[in-house]
Amino acid sequence: MGRWGSRLFKCDEDLDMAFSMATELGVSDRYWKHSMSAMVHQSDILAPPEAKARYQTPEYAVELADVIIPYIRDKLDTDDLGDRLFAASKAQETDEDDPRQETKYRTIILGALIMRAGAKIKNEDLEHLRALMPQINCSLRRSMSGDHGFRPPGRAQFLAALDHYVPGVPRSFLEPSCGRIEADIGHRHLICMRCRVATYCDEECQHAEVESREHQKVCMCPERR
């Protein structure tokens, strides 16, 4: 399927990394009640219709917030598992000549998963994530070499998550386009009146994206999608 959205965890690459993260880094999650990908797989466009319908229910929202996310946070914070996963991922990062930077992007996705859980991240690891961001491809659309790394909204989401990271506070990556969630700004977002998908923290944020013309290239009325 490839990519069906510009935010984090709206492409096969992100979800595949989330699904196999623990195993790829030498930790078996076979007997975990919930995997790390359970925190983000609600964005999977290929999920069965019954699963998509369940993700929209209030009961699932409660289960995600009160059961799944706290379970993963406890797993990551126990015996410094999150720190050990981060160290393992950093150790596997390849050099800057790798055009795909896949191993470094995996560290980014690991950081996003840890922040999604609200688990602990050491300051030095937060700084490492910031240092990685300029090294990761960020483009508006698929390039000749493939479709890897960030789209601009996903990059903005990740940067906002770093800026507002608080241990113990789970981070949502479902909204908005600018990266700052409602908890960051203290009010509901503005929404693009044309596509009804893109969201903005205020009029200045929306104007900045209009000026950059990035959203105009992908903005489409619902009936045309």
From TrEMBL:
Domain MYND-type, by residue range, is 175-219
Question: Sorted alphabetically, which Pfam families does this protein's record hold?
Answer: zf-MYND
Signal peptide as annotated in the record:
none
Q: Which SUPFAM superfamilies match?
A: HIT/MYND zinc finger-like (SSF144232)
> What keywords are assigned to this protein?
Metal-binding, Zinc, Zinc-finger
State the source organism's domain of life.
Eukaryota
UniProt cross-references to InterPro entries, sorted A to Z? Znf_MYND
GO MF? zinc ion binding
This protein is called MYND-type domain-containing protein
Species whose genome carries this gene = Penicillium bovifimosum
